[in-house]
Amino acid sequence: MELSENRLGCFPVIYPWSVDSIGTELAASFCKMTSLATSTIGIFNEAILIPFSLALPVTIRTAFTYNGASVGGTLDIGVYTREGGVANTLVRMFSSGPTVQSGTNAIQSNYVLSGTMQIGPGTYYMALLASNGSAGLYGINATAVIRQGYGMRLGNIGAATLPATITSFDDANLPSTMTMWGIATRSFI
Amino acid sequence: MSDINSYLLAPFGVHYYNSSVGRLALGGMADSKQLAATTGFFTTANAAIFIPFRVMTPTRINKMFLVNGTNVAGNIDLGIYTDDGIRLTSNGGTAQSGPNTVQILSMSTARRVHPGQYYYMAVACSSSSAGIVVEAGTPAVALLQMMGMARVTSAYPLPATVTLAVQATDRQVIHFGFISEEA
User: What is the architecture of the domain spanning A13-184?
Assistant: First the structure.
């Protein structure tokens, strides 16, 4: 039997509301996408980490944010694996590096990714790191306690660049807004 | 449970009618929008809307369906494409008929789709007066983009190959899909 014979392929876009991520949980908790509104990210130098799973290997080609009514500072988007062999340590697969947030009320997708973009089956974290708490993104209000139950984490970074490993976490202070951003296997969003 | 496919499909809740807002397509994402189906119109004549889907087991597709709204007009075409825009099969174009009904179209050729990758189901209409059932609320196009939808202009009837482009115009999720058969 081929590996792919009875495994679901990955959707072209992965973001928090995807069924490959925590979309089912968000639907259950009434985080309605139609309730989305622009807000500021509120935290900086700490990485928002959202889990997603793959049944088969994919190549990630694009990352994006849904920018809000204002922009500020830089954003760094990446993917981490928890299979680095060290407990409570996340290992970076790839990232964009700090990229100036630009374009209001629109999807920004000019993040240039570098690293290992072909990732295999398993569970990963998408990471978003802002340099400025005033970075505007579209999102939906949700309590931090609930989102911890979905597997989200907050990495202590202390800088505006996603590091090779994340070993320190601040999960109790997850921001109250569930923001919209993600990655894609296709070249456009 | 008669076979391994039945065993795998059962917990996933796959049905014979696989809608654009069903489990194999937008599924949880459309659920997240918490919208409600309502009657509307195909926004742009001759444009085609593409919605990604995947399958759990090899599936033969010989028929597709469109949920018609209160009015019918012009011609409709339904088809299946690969992720890089190659048409696997389509109807070729049929007059829209039967308001407030599910109109079923036969494909020109029965084709199989497989697990492990994603495909697009496509719908195109020749008239912007074609009544269709859509998710209410005119969601922002950014939401539709994040769901993985794509759009092609001047694509009626559905062409053999398309260059998939950003869905930046039509603020609607159309209810249509394919009817699965054992491969």
Answer: Sandwich (2.60)
Q: State ipTM.
A: 0.81
Residue B142 CB coordination number (10 Å):
21
Q: What integer pLDDT is reported at residue B5 of this predicted model?
A: 43
Residue A135: predicted pLDDT? 95
What percentage of chain A has pLDDT greater than the value 90?
A: 63
Determine the residue of chain A that is closest to B113 in CA distance. A5
B37–chain A Cβ distance below 8 A for any pair: no
Per CATH, is B14-182 categorized as 2.60.40?
A: no
Burial A106-124 (b: 16+ CB within 10 A, else e): ebbbebebebebebeeeeb
Chain B hits for A181, Cβ within 8 Å: none
**Chain B residue with the nearest C-alpha to that of A28:** B32
Supply A164's token pair.
Answer: 């090779």
Question: For B17, phi and psi rounded to 5 degrees?
Answer: -90, 115
Asked whether the beta carbons of residue A12 and residue B31 sit closer than 8 angstroms, the reply is no
pLDDT recorded at residue A131: 97
